[in-house]
Amino acid sequence: MLNRRHFLAASLAAGSLGMTPASAHKKGEAYVLPEEYMPREVRLKTKLAPGEIHVDPNQFALFFTLEKNRAMKWTVGIGRGNLYHPGEFHVGAKRKWPTWAPTQDMLDRNPDGYKDFTEGGQYFETAQPGGIDNPLGARALYLYSSSGKDTYLRIHGTNNPRTIGVEVSNGCARLINPQVEVLYDMVPLNTRVVLYPKAGEGPAHNTIPNTALDTQHSS
């Protein structure tokens, strides 16, 4: 079973891969990520194959596994409440400065919040262009199920560093833009992605294919 104990990790190096985000934060006063939120290389206590993404929501942590049982660790923002969705996926698509539109689940939960994307209460194919204010930020990794269907879950950027290390999204994991650009370049298509369960919460998404719900760990 998927288990958060995979990621009770010991730090090896505290080197940073990202600039401070003050210049990227447009709203209010400049905000700089705490030092402990900066990416670093760690040693994992459980052996995992290199070249995979593992997200532990209970640590707000994303790990990209390396050789010799090491990994790069980033602090991320995650889905709020039961909008976080655990399971095993793969990276089915990658986009630079992606477009964005709310999913049908998002429209159903908050129709007033997405009036620009609705017409008579019906979803239609309109997307916000890519750019600094786009919710998906500078880069996005699209998570697909084992059957090849888009789950609408993303690992993406944000220009708002205040949303890192908190439960804030509709289910996606987010990094600040400079950090997601680094991760994006490290991750090829078809990379395995494991989203571990969040303590005390169950999934609320209705449109994610059932094939994405398999939580059996293969190693």
Features of this protein?
7% helix; two-stranded parallel sheet; L,D-transpeptidase catalytic domain-like; single chain; 219 residues; disordered C terminus; mainly beta; ten-stranded mixed beta sheet
Can you offer a commentary on this structure?
By secondary structure, this protein is mostly beta strands. It has one domain: L,D-transpeptidase catalytic domain-like (Beta Barrel). 7% of the residues lie in helices and 30% in strands. The chain contains two helices and 14 strands, in the order βββββββαββββββαβ. The chain has helices spanning 104-109, 177-186; strands at 10-13, 40-43, 53-56, 61-65, 70-75, 78-79, 87-96, 118-119, 122-123, 139-144, 150-158, 167-169, 173-176, 192-195. The strands form three sheets. The protein has a ten-stranded mixed β-sheet, covered by helices on one side. A two-stranded parallel sheet has the order 6-12. A two-stranded antiparallel sheet has the order 8-9. A hairpin with a 4-residue loop joins strand 3 and strand 4 (61-65).
